[in-house]
Amino acid sequence: MIDLTNLGDLVVRKSYGGDVTFRIEKIERSVAIIKGTEFRLLADAPLTDLIKVDPDSPNERANTANIRATKSLEWLHRERVEQAERNRAVLNHEWNPQSSSQPEPSYFEVPGKVLHLDGDERYLKKSLDLYERLRVPAHGYFVNESAMAGALQRLLPTIRPEIVVLTGHDGVLKNRPNGNLYHLSSYKNSSHFVDAVGVAREYERNFDTLTIVAGACQSHFEALLQAGANFASSPGRVLIHALDPVYIAAKASFTPIRDTIHIKDVLNNTISGTQGVGGIETRGSYRIGLPKPMDLATLKVVPSM
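RE: above sequence
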């Protein structure tokens, strides 16, 4: 049995072969409430089933996830560099400086804005840090899954995002009332995600104007798509990595509005792969503009009035 006083310790479950690393969030008598450090999994476990692990020695599954996370980030950065090159090529072709006495202007970027609601405060912070690294404009809110539909009704008209991310914790229940995976009652929070997707889709019915990314570990993929999500988890009812929704949102944010998001490329470059996330054909929300705003502190202007 682990030390009862060590809330925040990293542990694995003996009964599951130590496949996922968790952090102890709460202890109630002889049962611990634990959250996955890399995967969006909330669970409870007897203290006798937990083994404390060294934070500097992640298990094989965590190592694999970290490697895929690094590759996903590299892929997004590579896509960004290639996109900048394409932008310059298009502007060089369209501007045709040989027929103009004006110098070629530099452009500015308007990536799609993200509204991210997360049922886990720690994962939300990780997500916002990654949005910042990727230069994706994002507003993030820690909202319990059951309150997401109501929160969207207040936030959508104010923030007016191009992309909505709804995630947190979910999972297939051990003691399912209906005994099968078709019923929403067989999932911890899928019904709440479905309600929230419905509110967002009612706000904006055009799938290319508002991209919705929804779901968490083992969520009811089909129900989320039917409710109006563009991308959702989890087709194979598997655990999804904490940052998979962010990678999808970032790709949507920086895919030009004239282009379709390459679903196969996006899903293959998520950490969880096509068993963890899926989606439908969707246009991007990235725009460029001309000319790039000047530094008004150095601009010399002759007053006209």
